[in-house]
Amino acid sequence: MSNQSNSSSSDEFRDEGINRPIPSFDASSIKLTTIAPALGVADDNTPDYLDYDTAKGRGFVVTMFANTGVSYLLGTLAGGLYGLNEGLRNTPSNRFKVKVNSVLNHCSRHGSRIGNMTGCLSVFYSFYEYVGDTLDIDRYTGPIQPAGPAVAAFMTGATYKATAGPRVAALAGTIGLGSVGLTYVAYSALGIPYGQRGWLFF
Questions:
Q1: Could you report the per-residue pLDDT of 57-93, keeping only the tens digit for each?
Q2: 15, 73, 86, 98: which is deepest, by most CB within 10 A?
Q3: For residue 5, what are the CA distances in angstroms to 9, 10, 12?
């Protein structure tokens, strides 16, 4: 009796899918534009291009972030190295803990100060360079090419020291202008294309 019940239950729950044919999963005839146009699938074969200004290069925000990030990092590293030297020279005691404390204090002080200064200068420079490119001032400077970095460097120095008076602001702008001039002369002597590095006026 039990054998008959077991055989009947096995016949009832027998898997008949083993002998069934495997369904076809070919999706070559399916068009995504007809199934889900809300997903943004274009109904054409034209490629999509990213917005990029080949004449001016990167946009203002991208350039400003890149210049500021690199400048802040380099300024912080330079200030940290200077603070390391000052911390070792001005240690009030030869004890190890006192030396470490002195080095940390000087590194954090000079590193943050120089990093903030270079970051602010990069923001000013990126802004004035963007304004110069937007106004296309290179058309009005004749043989002085490129004039945008020189004007941006002068305005950066003058703006950064504007609160110290007109003489100090003019001196700071002249220092910025001289930095661009020296860089341009050095690049020309070495045969390096000006502005190839993509960072500030280098």
A1: 567 888 889 899 999 999 999 999 999 999 999 888 8
A2: 86
A3: 6, 9, 10
